[in-house]
Amino acid sequence: MSALPPCPNCKSEFTYNDGAQLVCPECGHEWSATAAVESVEEGARVYRDSSGTVLQDGDTVSVIKDLKLKGSGGTVKMGTKVKNIRLVDSDHDIDCKIDGFGAMSLKTEFVKKV
């Protein structure tokens, strides 16, 4: 077993070094080896938006694609701003309230920090 951290994207244990980057052969995700070491040392999960910017509680984000809602039949349109997000350790990383839709959970891969 290698001493390298698992892939932050798919949790695969088969990561390998490629210069200064770590690479996951299963999903193709690449990330910085120094960032991986820092996050393991801190012990805290780092939440990043679709462009790699670190997110924190209380940030304002923008939705980057139309998101169809299950059950209600509505759609959250691209460009919708979501204020005062709360980060949670779950399948959907963001808990928030969206005007016109109410309480909702979003994935960090579908938002961009404003």
Automatic annotation (TrEMBL):
| Pfam families for this protein | YjdM, Zn_Ribbon_YjdM
Cite the Protein YjdM C-terminal domain residue spans from the record: 48-114
All copies of the Protein YjdM N-terminal domain together span 4-32
Classification via InterPro entries: YjdM, YjdM_C, YjdM_N
Give the family this protein belongs to, as stated in its UniProt record: Belongs to the YjdM family.
Q: What is this protein called?
A: Alkylphosphonate utilization protein
